[in-house]
Amino acid sequence: MNNLTHLFSVAPMMDWTDSHCRVLHRALTRRALLYTEMVTADAILRGDRKRLLGFETCEHPLALQLGGAEPQALAEAARVAEGFGYDEINLNVGCPSDRVQSGRFGACLMKEPELVADCVAAMRKAVALPVTVKCRIGVDEQDPELALRTLIARAADAGATCFAVHARKAWLQGLSPKENREVPPLDYDLVYRVKRENPALTIILNGGIQSLDEAERHLTHVDAVMLGRAAYQSPALLADIDARFFGDAPRGLDAALAEFNLYVERKLKDGVRLAAMTRHMLGLFQGRPGARAFRRHLSEYGPRDGAGMDVLRDALGFLSPERAAA
User: Fold this and answer.
1) Model pTM?
2) For an engineered disulfide with 274, which of 280, 281, 296, 307 has Cβ 3.0 to 4.6 Å away?
3) Angle, helices 291-301/309-317, rounded to nearest 10 degrees
4) Is the pLDDT of residue 2 over 50?
5) pLDDT at residue 66 above 90?
6) Average pLDDT over residues 232-242
7) Which domains does the chain have, with CATH numbers?
8) Which residues does the annotation mark as catalytic?
C-alpha cells in the first residue's frame, strides 16, 4: 500500500474529482489522500471498467468511492476495484441527490444502519483493502445525536474502522444537493464528541472547512480532515499540505505546474481535449495578479477544437509581472 494516511484528504466530488483533477492535485501534494468521484457498483459490474476505474499511477494514495446498497454487488465491485490497484474502498452514505436516492443509496442509507453494516461486511470479506464509510450526521427528521452514533456503531461492528463525517444533516426532499452543502447547520461539536467516545476509530471531519488554519484547529479534536470545495476552487492551498501537516519539504507551485503541464501535453497526444484537463486549473492562481485574464483565456479558448499547449502557455502568460500589470 502506498503510504495510506487519512490525516488530510480531498473529498470525492461528483463532476470534479476525475482523474485529470486528481493528477493536478497530486502534483500539488504527494501526501494527501485523494478520492474518486462516486462510481456506482452497478456501473462497474455492467459498464466500461477501464473508463470508470482507470487512473494514473501517480494518483496514489487513491480511494475509490462506491455507491450502492446491495451488499453482494458492492462486494463484487470492490473486488474489481482491488484488481485495478486502489488503496481503499469508501462507501457513500452521504450524497443526497435525487438520482442517488432513487437507487436507495447515498444519504438515505443513514436510515438503514443495518444495511450499511451488511454492505461493509460483504466488502470486507471480498477484499483485503480498507473499507471506509463517508456519511452525514443524519437526514431529515433524524436526531443526529442518535443517527450518527448508530450508523458508526453498526458499521464498526461490521469491521469499518474509519469514518469521514460530513458534519451536516441532509434533507432528502426540498433541498438541492448544492443547498445540502450549505443550508443545514454544521455541527462540528457532535463529531468531536463521537471521536472522544470512539478513540479506537479514525474519525475524519468534512464539511465547510475553508482553510488550512481551520483544518489545523479541527485536528486538535479529530484524527483527520477532508477538504472539498475549498481544495477544488483554490487548489494552490494543496501545495502547503506536505510541509504543514507531514513535515516534508515545501512543494513549490511552479514545480507542480511544470509537472501538470507535462501530463497535459502527453494526454493531448492521446486525444484528450484541453478543456477536460485545464478546467480544473481555473482557480489555481486565485488572488494573484493576472488570474482573471488567465481564467478568461482558458475558458474561452480551451474548449475549442484543436486547442493545445499554446492556449495553456498563452493563458499562463497573463500571470507574468509585465502582463499582469498591463
Assistant:
1) 0.94
2) 307
3) 160
4) no
5) yes
6) 97
7) 8-246 (3.20.20.70), 253-325 (1.20.120.1460)
8) 95
